[in-house]
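Throughout our pipeline, every protein is held as a single compact record rather than as scattered files. Nothing more is needed to write down the fold, since each code stands for a local backbone conformation. The record that follows is passed on verbatim for readers who wish to inspect the format.
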Amino acid sequence: MIMRRFNVSAVAFDLDGTLLETGPDLAAAANRMLSELALPPLAQATLISFIGHGVPNLVRRALTSASGSEPSAAQIERATDSFRAHYREHLCVTTRPYAGVFECLQWLRARNVRRACVTNKSAEFARPLLEQTGLVQEIELLIGGDTLPNKKPHPQPLLHTASHFGINASELMLVGDSAVDVQAARAAGAPIAVVSYGYSGDTPAHALGADLVLDRLDELVEFLQQ
């Protein structure tokens, strides 16, 4: 539901669950990690539900579910190293842009609307994913989870992006898929749109409190044309 109009000069996109369907590859890496640690595999849907708060959180929840007990900090660190190694080796096996992504980005570029990717994913993974899926040419700025001292839901990544583009945060729309994105946008004073197809966990997209809900990313074009 559109609550009000915004003066949008730039759009920042989340990556996992917004631009790219990365869930199956993330889940596969997590199960390879569990196998290496002699733990039973988890269902893909279960592992995908853990996406959204960074790799250490995904690893911790996977370990807890597979072992039935809360892992220690040392176990999480070891497992995180294993996960990263497996994910790096199989980064883009099934990962693809969602329907409407290219159309939206190309429309924005043609109208000189600035475009960024602001993700909690480490830049070491985010950048090659953008390159291998052909999105890198449409993105002007990449802010990974390790680019700045703070990551979403902290407002710093969005405030930095707005400053980079020379605009106020109120002119930067964030498009994401989770409560983390909504919290970051609200903290920065930026408008927020969420997609209905992403990794929002148990909370439906329409219940996240965003200004706009999109079923396809190219629906953003219709909104901005109004």
Observations:
- The chain has a mean pLDDT of 95.
- The two ends are 14 Å apart (CA to CA).
